[in-house]
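Appendix C: a fully annotated inverse folding record. The material below is reproduced so that readers can follow the format used throughout the book. The structure is listed first as tokens, followed by the designed sequence.
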């Protein structure tokens, strides 16, 4: 893909006007209060993986509306009882938590690691998921971006963001985790969720958001037809006249708005040829990140000029490992 967005010099200065609703903070405070009215951890059972370097548990926690959400919880072998820093990871669009053998980097680096299953997803990419979404919706386009979109309270991504917050709550409730050293990471959809959690949970220690989805959504719809944003275009091409309600709902979950409230240091990444999460939408979140926090948190962005949505791939994972280590030692 050729370069199609703003020049890099303009991207670095790109800080569009926000479009968040007047009751944005009250809206999220109400949903967080309701979700936290129940205990976070429902079950945590050991799993035999055949590996000798890590120990793994099938952890189930209460997500939005108390719905059971599954996750893999993994630690360095034999470390049970030691209070470790933790990394909570969120999966990309269409993926679930996968298999126990897939995501071993963070535990291998000495962290307690939780990978959250994504309700209703896990059948488009990767090796699957195990968490159903018990909530239906009015007519929507195939995919997840339009499910419940005419009702801000019922919207799929509103519920998924609460799931993500509760995943952090669950990890912080574990006796062998340093609750002051819990970080969030993710790419694409997972990056958008990491930014959302950073804006809603001030106790987060650090954030890694790679090629994040769900940021500056109106801009994305103007410059890309690629899915998942294409789902919204096709939905609105049939559900004519719903634009105002759609954008009102999206204003509550836009990562650009949530990122403004973040307080933790952050590492972003962007591919300048990314047609899935266009560069200007990533820079919108980056440039707004921490804007409402006193003093503004430390932040940096890794730029990959020749890459599409894969961004830095394993190169960025290496960078993130070293960056997080520095954050925790400072």
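Designed amino acids, in order:
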């Amino acid at each position: 893909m050729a370069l199609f967005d703003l020049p890099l010099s303009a991207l670095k200065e790109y800080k569009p006007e926000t479009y968040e609703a007047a009751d944005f903070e009250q809206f999220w405070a109400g949903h967080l209060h309701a979700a936290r009215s129940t205990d976070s951890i429902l079950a945590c059972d050991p799993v035999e993986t055949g590996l000798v370097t890590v120990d793994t548990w099938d952890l189930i926690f209460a997500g939005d509306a108390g719905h059971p959400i599954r996750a893999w919880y993994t630690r360095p072998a034999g470390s049970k009882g030691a209070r470790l820093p933790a990394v909570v990871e969120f999966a990309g669009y269409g993926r679930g938590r996968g298999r126990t053998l897939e995501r071993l980097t963070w535990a291998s680096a000495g962290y307690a690691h939780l990978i959250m299953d994504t309700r209703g997803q896990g059948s488009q990419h990767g090796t699957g998921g195990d968490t159903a979404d018990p909530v239906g919706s009015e007519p929507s386009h195939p995919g997840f971006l339009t499910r419940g979109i005419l009702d801000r309270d019922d919207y799929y991504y509103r519920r998924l963001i609460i799931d993500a917050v509760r995943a952090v709550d669950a990890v912080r409730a574990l006796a062998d985790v340093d609750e002051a050293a819990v970080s969030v990471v993710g790419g694409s959809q997972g990056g958008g969720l990491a930014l959302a959690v950073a804006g809603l949970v001030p106790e987060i220690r650090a954030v890694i958001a790679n090629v994040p989805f769900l940021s500056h959504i109106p801009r994305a719809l103007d410059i890309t037809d690629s899915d998942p944003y294409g789902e919204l275009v096709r939905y609105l091409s049939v559900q004519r006249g719903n634009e105002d309600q759609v954008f009102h709902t999206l204003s509550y979950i836009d990562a650009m708005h949530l990122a403004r409230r973040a307080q933790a240091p952050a590492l972003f990444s962007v591919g300048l040829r990314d047609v899935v999460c266009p560069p200007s939408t990533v820079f919108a979140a980056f440039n707004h990140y921490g804007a409402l926090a006193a003093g503004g948190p430390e932040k940096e962005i890794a730029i990959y000029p020749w890459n599409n949505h894969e961004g830095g791939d394993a190169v960025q994972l290496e960078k993130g490992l070293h960056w997080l280590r520095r954050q925790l030692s400072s």
